[in-house]
Structure formats: C-alpha cells, structure tokens
Specification:
By secondary structure, the chain is α/β, with parallel strands linked by helices. Helices cover about 55% and strands about 15% of the residues. One of its GO terms (molecular function) is ATP binding.
Amino acid sequence: MTKLIGLTGGIATGKSVVSDYLQQQGVPIIDADLVTHQVEAKGTPGLQSLVTVFGTQILKVDSSLDRHALGEIVFNDPTALKMLVRTIDPFIRDAIFHQLAANQSARLTVLDAPTLFENGYVHLADEVVVVSCDPVTQLRRLMKRNKLSIVDANKRIQNQWPLQTKCDLADTIIYNSGTVSTTLTQVDRWLAKEMK
C-alpha cells in the first residue's frame, strides 16, 4: 500500500522544482494540474459541465477551453471560483483515485496539488509537504513567470490560502528562497527519512 504525500505550496514558491526532482528519483507523481487539464479537455464531460455553468464564453473557436477567459471570470469573483471548484472537483477526484490505484505497489506516491488545502485534497494525504519561500521572492517569480503586473500577481497570490497557514499545517516544510541546490538538499534529507 503506497503512502500518499500531499505536496503543495503557494503559487510560484517552487513546488514544481521539488516535484520534478522527486519524479527524477523514481517517485510516482500525480500532478493535480495535469489531471485538471485532462478532465477539462475538449469533448470531455468535465468541460461540458463547465460550459453548463459558465456558458460558451469560456470556449475557444475550436470548442476547447479558453483558460484565459475562464481565469478572467474566476480570479475576479470568489463566488465564481467556488462554482468552478464545485463543478470540476468530482472529475479531478475520480482521476486522482484512478492514478492512486495504479501506484499501490510504490513505497511513496506524491500528489502534487497547488490547492491541496483549498480544495480539500489534504484529507487524501498521509503526510503534507509544503514548499515555501519569502513573499518578495514569490511575487517576483510570479510576475516574471506569468508576465503579470504587480496588481495581478498579488491578486493571484491572495486567491490562495496564506502561505504561512499552509506551513503551519505541514508535516514538512521545504524552504525555497535560496539556490536550487539548497532546496534539493532538503528534499534529499526528507526523502532519505521517508525511504528508511
């Protein structure tokens, strides 16, 4: 029976660096973002459910999901964001359980989920690892990565739980304000303990 590790953090704190490294070490990763993209793909029941709730304005000309249009709706309206989660969540959970069943023989499986706490996936995890960094670094990374203004970047950060709250609820915190090698040294230490 695999041990499920919930891996999360704030937007642009470096969770993907940790997730990618764990995958390179042979740890199976269930990527909640990838699962979300799969269940929202063109022609899926998940996308049809979103269209039922938000209308065809969230579709591109080719009938695939226009993530930018959907983002404009949900990141400016907390009620719409809740509706999005409520609509797509059952499809995401089914896909996660399916992947988890496929990894039962692995010692560890990591559920890489940016909204592990916000969407209630934390209850699926046996242990929680939070990737954290200082607020200035987080803001700078997000603005650079997503080409956002300081106002839009702050809005995205504020749509998630405060990073400190996530850290308070974590079993392990990986600090990622410094170099990548410093971060990965912490991951190695944690992984060595888990694999004992």
